[in-house]
Amino acid sequence: MTVRPARPDDLPGFLALAAEVEHWFGPMVAEPGFHRAVRRNIDRGLATVIEDDRGLLGGLLFGGKPPLRHLHWLVVAERARGTGLGRALVEDALRRHVRAPAVVEVVTFGPDHPGAVTSGARVFYERLGFTPAEAAEPGPEGGSRQVYRLHLG
After folding, report:
1. Which helix (H) or strand (E) is 49 found in, with range?
2. Listed residue (79, 63, 60) closest to 20, CA to CA
3. CA–CA separation, 43 vs 53, rounded Å?
């Protein structure tokens, strides 16, 4: 497995990953705004991927300005979930882009969202040291969302 900064030719891989989670997050693959966001993050050096010899296994989009940073998007391919790849992506992003003291925020599923348990996202972030905070605006599919924060330094 290789974790590396994303390149422009990784866009199809990001779209394949997005297709796996549209049922939780709403439309992305056909959305020009999502394409622009991925390209913009790649151009700014704020997109990271993890791959093997068969292609992309995960992708992450990062942002914000110190001391408040944002994990905007993180997806691991279904075939690779639960193998530590999500952790590797987040740890790489924190190492590359965050200097303490800092706060990193992510918006994930609210506790009543059907994907909250199925995806494992809430438990995943808690294991990385993020703590649940206030509710966030509902997702594009109408499901509840919640902010999680990681305080560093």
Report:
1. strand 47-52
2. 79
3. 24
Identity of residue 86: G
Cβ neighbours for 119, distance < 8 A, ≥ 6 positions apart: 21, 24, 109
* Whole-angstrom Cα Rg for the chain: 14
6 contacts 14 by C-beta, under 8 angstroms: yes
105 touches 14 (CB < 8 A): no
Helix, strand, or coil (residue 120): coil
Show pLDDT as tens, one digit a residue, over the chain (153 residues): 899 999 999 999 999 999 999 988 889 999 999 999 999 999 999 999 999 999 999 999 999 999 999 999 999 999 999 999 999 999 999 999 999 999 999 999 999 988 888 888 999 999 999 999 999 999 887 889 999 999 999
Cα–Cα distance between 12 and 64 in angstroms, integer? 25
β-pair type (68-76, 102-109): parallel
Give percent helix, percent strand, percent coil of the chain, each to the nearest 5.
Answer: 35, 35, 30
pTM of the predicted model as reported, rounded to 2 decimal places: 0.94
Q: Residue 149, exposed/middle/buried by CB under 10 A (0-12, 13-18, 19+)? A: middle
**Quick one: DSSP state of residue 114?**
T
